[in-house]
Specification:
Layout: H1 25-50, H2 69-101
Length: 102
């Protein structure tokens, strides 16, 4: 079975300049944490499928990030806004291409 990599460490508060950088240290941590959780879930499912006891470190409550809830809400809002902006941009591109074809 695969070995779970080390859990990502959150950045220090002083690592973030709070200026809305495109690649904020918190976004990078969030991406690393999501990847870590996906890997852990795959390993946990392999344990469950084989009938073996799931190690404590693979239990969902141990896989949560250690971000302050306020920062988590801010990051989630930032991610949602970025996704919405990209969707709107994609929609405008499609509409523009359709207009050119007409």
């Amino acid at each position: 079975m695969k070995t779970l990599p080390p859990k990502p460490e959150p950045p220090e508060d002083s690592d973030c300049c709070l200026s809305g950088c495109e690649f904020c240290v918190w976004d990078l941590y969030d991406d690393d944490m999501r990847e870590y959780q996906e890997q852990a879930q795959a390993i946990r499912q392999a344990f469950e499928a084989s009938g073996l006891a799931v190690p404590e470190q693979l239990k969902p409550e141990r896989l949560r990030d250690s971000i302050d809830p306020t920062m988590r809400a801010f990051l989630d809002m930032e991610r949602d806004l970025a996704i919405k902006a990209q969707e709107e941009k994609d929609k405008e591109t499609i509409e523009h291409k359709n207009e050119e074809e007409d």
